[in-house]
Amino acid sequence: MNFRNYLFISAVCVIAACGGDDKTPVKSAPVAAKPAVMAPFRFHKAIEVSPGQTYDVLSWGRGSSQIGAFAILHSDSSGMKYTTTTGDLDGEITDVYNADMDVDGNPEILIQAKGKDTVNYAKIYAFEFNNNDAHKLDFPKLTNTQRKGYRGNDNFYIREGKLIREFPVHDGNSASAKPTGAKRQLEYSLRSNNFTVKQLSTDSATADNDKQVVVKQPEPEKKQSVSKSKKRKHTEPKKKRRRHRG
After folding, report:
1. Integer distance in angstroms from the first to the last C-alpha of the chain?
2. Residue 129 in contact with residue 106, Cβ under 8 Å?
């Protein structure tokens, strides 16, 4: 083997060694885990409604998971103003929504909480913010018709500026009630800081309510005519008897 061939073979070996497939798996950088909420806090969600306007919603409490308190921390970083709105909390916060339901330019912060008694009922804590002032809004309770077959497990979401509420309908309100397969859907609107609600779905509760207002049809006219003829037969003989005596 001459020197030229030796250099050629050596070069091929070096290239093969350097360019060979490395089957050693490359470890990706670990994804930073979401920071856990430390006790006594249980929930935290930050909502930025506009640049420089952020609302941090938190809940806290020790010794119980079903009662406690909530706080809405409003950071106006552009105006360097910071305000806090607090309230008592029944249940645990499951989500927070931001909307401008009355289209007045002032954001509404809606806190959804889930409590427990005999059902997993839902409760909404609603506030409208005008700059740094918070105005509490009274969220309406379910009416008797809306509550028929209600066993909790609500689902809320914002659609076209309205708050939509959905929950499965059961064949009763007791603990042994079973789902009927129907779902009740309610739409909440806001006007002059007052909520209005209308039902969008047609379910078993509406059908039962319609059955209760059904009026019975009147009896056929034939039966009425027979009764009139009987009355005439009783009156005519009396007139004939009076004439005979006279």
Report:
1. 166
2. yes
The pLDDT assigned to 87 comes to 97
Residue in this structure with the two tokens 């037969």, named with its chain if needed: 233
CA distance 97 to 124: 10
Query: Is residue 131 situated within a structural domain?
Result: yes
Neighbour-count burial for 173-183, b at 16+ CB within 10 Å, e otherwise: eeeeeeeeebe
pLDDT in tens, 111-143: 999 987 767 789 999 999 998 899 999 999 999
Task: Compute the distance between CA of residue 40 and CA of residue 154 in angstroms, rounded to an integer.
Answer: 27
For residue 181, the enclosing domain spans 41-212
**Total number of domains constituting the chain:** 1
Nearest to 97 by CA among 126, 123, 132: 126
pTM given for the model: 0.69
SS3 assignment, position 228: helix
188-238 pLDDT per residue, tens:
999 999 999 999 988 744 444 433 323 333 444 544 444 444 444 444 555
As to burial, measured by CB atoms within 10 angstroms (0-12 exposed, 13-18 middle, 19+ buried), residue 13 is exposed
Is the residue at 15 inside a domain? no
Query: What are residue 95's phi and psi, to 5 degrees?
Result: -170, 165
